[in-house]
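User: Okay, second chain of the day. Same drill as before: sequence in, structure tokens out.
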Amino acid sequence: MRNPTRRDFLIGTTALAGAAAVSGPAFSNAPQQFDLVIRGGEVIDPSQKLRGIRDVGIRYGQIAAVESSIDPSLAKRSIDAKGKLVTPGLVDLHTHIYAYGSSFGVPPDELTQYSATTTYVSAGDAGANNFSSFRRQIVSQSRARVFAFVNISVIGLTGFPVGETINIKYADADATARTIAENQDIVLGAKVRESIAIVGENGIEPLKRAIEAVELSGTKGRVMCHIGDAPGDLQVLVNQLRPGDILTHPYSSLGNNSVQNGKVLPALLEAKKRGVIIDVGHGAGSFNFDIAEAAIQQGLTFDTISSDISTASGNTPSRPYFPWVLSKFLALGFSLEDVIAAATIKPATIIGKVPKLGTLQVGAPGDVSILELIEGPVQLLDTANNPRTGKAYLKAVLTVREGVANGPPYQLPFTVN
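Assistant: Same drill. Structure tokens below.
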């Protein structure tokens, strides 16, 4: 028998490769297991105009299936969501989560059991001088997904009770621009608070510098501008905002705000028409039922609902934990689908950094919120402690981040983001 030649060897390996190619499809057609299946909940995904009883399957941290029924044998773990709402993970565009580093921050993971939120946006907690600390301590150490606006003041929100731009030297456009440019994976732009108590005699100069910083950064960043007891002529301030910038706290009853003498200021309506985003920003003092109703009836409708949760607001009777804030818009007559959209796909689109975030589409991040809609009369308070009776409210049940639920039973090993 002759020894095999190189030619014989190549022919043999080619035959093996061919056999593998023939047998391959049998493996690819085999049912694949899901790491987690959320069963029997009422799925609401405004991005797909979907509302109905479905099973949601998650594999490798991504949504892998949304079907009327998924074979139980294919699930490594199942969660029974019968009688509950299953939505894309809630996205809160305006929060204060720089715990230990700013005056108002609450750790995002500590909020999760009350907020059912999977994505938080820090609204100017950190400025150029302390943003790297925020990134290392909060962004890197949190299970929650975190994005941020950089405060135009280099000290961020560390100066309380002194306003961060009382001293205009803190409003450093160059330093802020550099911070935005160096952290584009998580930074959405610049934040500025335009209230007399914050800016003192500096008027709208901090806003002008925030816009300058975003433009200097060379990014497509936005400016988020807080109003409420604004300095000077509010319409002059609002006219500075560009399409895509964000106006937060439009429904505050503090002085010099959106609605004056029962009428929405024309500049606010013009801003909305040119593409300025209207964000609720409930907070400790920035949401009034009567102002909201008047503004909405006159065309100043919100694009996004956000909590403005902080150590200050979280202890107030109005309780701005995200599901409770959403419940107030149910009480104002908005549909459940509209409210969920304003807390999922709409803010996720504004963030614009994670494909399919804010959806339950196949391939989306496996971020899911499970909520309970509790029907029956409920008293809700605005930030002036005015009551409003609603017909139902939302309550957080469970949060899933990239396919891993918060709380026990814990994944082994605990390899989660």
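The domain at 89-351 is CATH 3.20.20.140 (TIM Barrel).

User: Thanks, on to the next one.
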